[in-house]
Each structure stands twice: as structure tokens, then as C-alpha cells.
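User: Hand in any protein.

Assistant:
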Amino acid sequence: MLFENPTKQVAVTTADKVFEQMQHAIVEGEFAAGSKISEPELAKHYQISRSTLREALNRLEKCHLIERKANVGSRVVDCTIEGLLELYITREALEGMACRQAALNMTDDEIVAMQQMLSKHADSAALKEGVAYYQEEGDVDFHYKVILGSHNKQLINLICGQLYHLVRMYRCQFGMHSPRASRAFAEHSHIIQAISDRDGELAELLMRRHIAASRKNIENKIAQSKDS
């Protein structure tokens, strides 16, 4: 049986459903980065009470998708270059650790499922053309599955529960097209091979290098945009 994410719960209450709807809307840019959140308007839009809305907003704040300040109110987080680079440095450390744990704890069935998932990724037209490597959310996302494969509840909570959707928000805001698309896919293949070999040290090193390379690619893009 594949390991399930303990941080992911089935939407049961109204607050659960509103939280998931707003989370998706923020990540996809339907709520603009940095925009002010009007509680009366949202309560009316979702046809819910202010207390139910605040419960959903509390959870969005824990996911770092909104900011709340006294006497100011709530805003969608602003996607800054500095914030993006800080996020990637944090990911490098945490996901590297998760990858080492995955090499120790991931089941053989999970590894086979990951290899099959990468085979499906390889069929993507954008990836074949080397222009983009886009992965849908959750169970078809390589990084997400590696984190779950760590079977470390603390890491899963930190990365999937608090940072995962913020990472996706930044990806949507800054675009998925990258000259690294083909190389990133190859790096994923090498990582899953290290996990399959149960080489935790190599798996961690490869994941850290993979995320660091993505960060350097972003830094290069920023430098080029400043020069142009």
C-alpha cells in the first residue's frame, strides 16, 4: 500500500472546502499576488459566515499564502525575487533530507510507481521539445512523491503542509518555461535511481544539486532581465 500524506485531509467542513478553493485560486493567480483580501466580499462570494472564512484564512496563513497584520488586514503574499530565492534555499536543505530518507524508507512498490510516473512525464510534448517540464499538483509531481516517500511525518508536514503550495504559486507566477527542462527531467531520473539503489547519501546530494541548479537558473534569468 502506498504511503498517504497525513497532512492532506478530505474536505469535510465548509471551512475545509473554502480553504481548498481559495488555496487553488491563490496558487493559480486568480487572486493576484499582493492583493488585499476583503473578508465581507469573500464571505458573500462563498456564502459563508465570517467565522468560517476566518478559519479558512488561518489555514492559508499557515501555508504562507496570505499575510495578516493587525489594523491592516489580510493580503495574498507578494511573489518577490528575494522570497523566491529564500524558498529555494530552504527547499534545497529540506528536500535533500527528505530524499535521503526516501532512499531508506520508500517501498519497492513506491519506487516502481515513481519510475512509471517519470515514463509518463517523458511523453510530454513540451518536455520533448525541451521548453517546459510542467507537473500537475500532488500525486503526479516528482518532488511531492519523493517527500511522501520519506515516510517522515515532520518533513512531510513542513514541506507539503507549509511550503508546497507556496512553491507552486511561485512557479505559476514566474512561469514554467525553462532551458533546463530536459536537464531537470534527467536529474529526476538520476535521483530515483539513487533512491532505488538505496544510496541515501547520493540521493540527497543529487536532490540538493538539482534544486540549487534551478535556483541558479532563476538568478541568471534575473540578471539577464536587469541587463536588458
In short: The domain at 81-227 is CATH 1.20.120.530 (Four Helix Bundle (Hemerythrin (Met), subunit A)).
